[in-house]
Design brief:
single chain, about 65% helix, globular
């Protein structure tokens, strides 16, 4: 069930009405209803993998309690490593086994040994990387004595399986989401209206920006030999807007949906394409994943403490692991490596914490220096996205070689449509003027006369209905 589907359009208001009707009953009934709805939502993808989700949830629930009850460190460690090993084992088998088997066979073949390894003929369970990380952070926090285990199985199961974030995040923390689940919610009209605005903006990002950009980007990436360098540049730029509109659009719909139920989720995007360096970009892109790796991998490795060599080593580790998290392909690993290289100068020069506030805060325009920094950072990001989008490293390097040929100075042999260029400019302008808010549409027209504000919303709805691109599955569903 896609967020931008007719099924979801029918599903959401029905769940909303029943949910708030149950508010008159015990909180437990409301949470149980949300849990059952979340399981139904997940089973719409493939009901067989629902059992894997339930098993993973039960494992972490019981090992969390056993860790808390352990009378000595050895027993506590046994339960901890049981949870970690099983969770990462499932993730490894479903997501990475074929990659390692094929890569090992190719390595043997390169030195004259031929081996045929058995590979899994099974689809990747949707959302497994996200809900596995929910559980991992929970058991790690218990092991480190940061939190106590949740005794209510319904509350914990809802934390793991809450449907707005189940298949593509944001990756929540028990310290943030569980207290909201355990607390009685009261309907807040302003919060619900804010949620609807965020859903609307998310749908615009996904259906108008991402899906239209995808048509041009797919055409270029699927046939790079047919087009000149300037067309390939446009193709890479359009993919950059596709993946941003797609994933941040999903996050906006998820956060907006959750606001309808009185629950705030972690912010996942904060205008990353207005970043002035790569370090700032990674503080603003997929924030819940970046902060997860920071807290549960980078800091335990030593973080930024110690010598410069330790800082550089830890930076490369976290980016390569982040790339590998995205997919079992050398292209993702190289994408992570490339971002580590891009961020390296700011680590060495100790400028990685220079840009903490949004650019040109309180101003209409950035300075020339800020504008140049934004452009350079965006182009570096676009270059890295080529590896993210390509099917393999050979295709990525071939694409870049063709991109940087002399034909980059020619007019594009395949021009994007005038309509999508107009919408991209409208999108960029809206994001810029709304960049100091949680999402771009949050305060735009907020003080207008109600009639004009509704005209704006109706206009956006009409644009979505009339100019939506060919339907594309959300990119991050594959992770």
């Amino acid at each position: 069930m896609l967020f931008n589907s007719l099924e979801y359009l029918l599903f959401l208001p029905i769940v909303f009405l029943i949910y708030w009707f149950l508010n008159k009953q015990k909180l437990q009934y409301q949470n149980l209803f949300l849990l059952l709805v979340s399981y139904y939502f997940y089973s719409c993808w493939d009901w067989r993998f629902l059992f894997l989700l339930i098993f993973s949830t039960a494992l972490d629930y019981f090992t969390g309690i056993k860790m808390h009850q352990a009378t000595n460190k050895k027993n506590k460690s046994i339960w901890f490593w049981l949870s970690i090993t099983v969770n990462l084992g499932f993730l490894g088998v479903f997501k990475y086994y074929n990659f390692f088997a094929i890569s090992f066979a190719e390595a043997l073949s390169s030195i004259g040994f031929h081996a045929n390894f058995w590979t899994l003929q099974v689809i990747l369970p949707i959302g497994i990387s996200f809900y596995t990380f929910h559980g991992l952070s929970y058991v790690i926090d218990i092991y480190k004595n940061r939190i106590e285990p949740e005794k209510n199985i319904v509350s914990y199961s809802l934390f793991v399986s809450y449907f707005p974030l189940l298949v593509a995040g944001p990756i929540e923390r028990a310290t943030h989401l569980l207290p909201q689940i355990k607390k009685k919610r009261v309907f807040n009209y302003n919060q619900a209206v804010d949620g609807l605005r965020q859903i609307l903006w998310g749908l615009f990002k996904k259906m108008v920006i991402a899906d239209n950009c995808a048509e041009y980007a797919n055409l270029i990436f699927d046939n790079p030999n047919h087009y000149n360098g300037s067309s390939l540049l446009f193709g890479a730029i359009f993919f950059a807007f596709q993946i941003y509109g797609d994933f941040s659009g999903y996050s906006d719909i998820a956060l907006g949906t959750s606001k309808l139920f009185g629950i705030d989720l972690l912010k996942n995007f904060n205008y990353p394409y207005f970043s002035r360096d790569i370090a700032e970009f990674w503080r603003r892109w997929h924030i819940s994943l970046s902060s997860w790796f920071r807290d549960y991998l980078y800091v335990p490795l030593g973080g930024s403490k110690g010598s410069m060599w330790i800082k550089i080593k830890n930076t490369f580790i976290i980016f390569i692991v982040s790339g590998f998290w995205h997919g079992a392909n050398w292209t993702f690993i190289f994408w992570g490596l490339l971002n580590a290289i891009f961020i390296l100068p700011s680590i060495i020069l100790k400028t990685n914490r220079n840009n903490l506030e949004i650019v040109a805060k309180g101003k209409i325009f950035p300075t020339v220096k800020e504008g140049s920094q934004i452009l350079i950072t965006f182009l570096l990001t676009v270059l890295a996205w080529i590896f993210f989008r390509a099917d393999n490293l050979h295709d990525a390097f071939h694409y870049i070689a063709k991109l940087f040929s002399t034909s980059i100075f020619q007019l594009p042999s395949k021009r994007p449509s005038f309509g999508i260029l107009i919408f991209l400019m409208l999108f960029f302008f809206t994001e810029w003027i709304g960049r100091e808010n949680d999402f771009a549409l949050q305060k735009i027209g907020f003080k207008w006369n109600r009639m004009f504000r509704w005209i704006l919303y109706v206009l956006i709805i009409l644009i979505i209905l009339v100019f939506t691109g060919k339907e594309q599955e959300f990119i991050y569903f594959q992770f």
